[in-house]
Design a protein that fits this description.
This is Antibiotic biosynthesis monooxygenase. Helix content is 30%, strand content 27%. By secondary structure, the chain is α+β, with helices and mostly antiparallel strands. The protein starts with 6 loop residues before the first strand and ends in a 13-residue tail after the last strand.
Length: 109
Amino acid sequence: MNQTDPVVVVATMEAAEGKETQVEEALRTAVRAVHAEPGCERYALHRDAKSPTTFVMVEKWASGPALGAHGKGAALAELGKALDGLLAKPMDVQLLTPLPDGDGRLGAL
């Protein structure tokens, strides 16, 4: 991956039983803060339709350095503190390299 290429991230979090509301609130707070970060092109929260304890954040960053700055930023540090003890297992984070094709609006995030 070239450092100037966009990066897509899919982060999956499973709330501990009974902690779904607290996890959702922490993630919603993070969304609002992260949207202001340089290089953030998408930071969108979702809930798994089949598992109400599972949350998925779909992210798009302008570049590897922008994602790196996000990883060291205040919003992610605060999110880590807010989620402490609320997750059933460690967060699963996938870094993806976009492979756009077809219609530019439809073939890439």
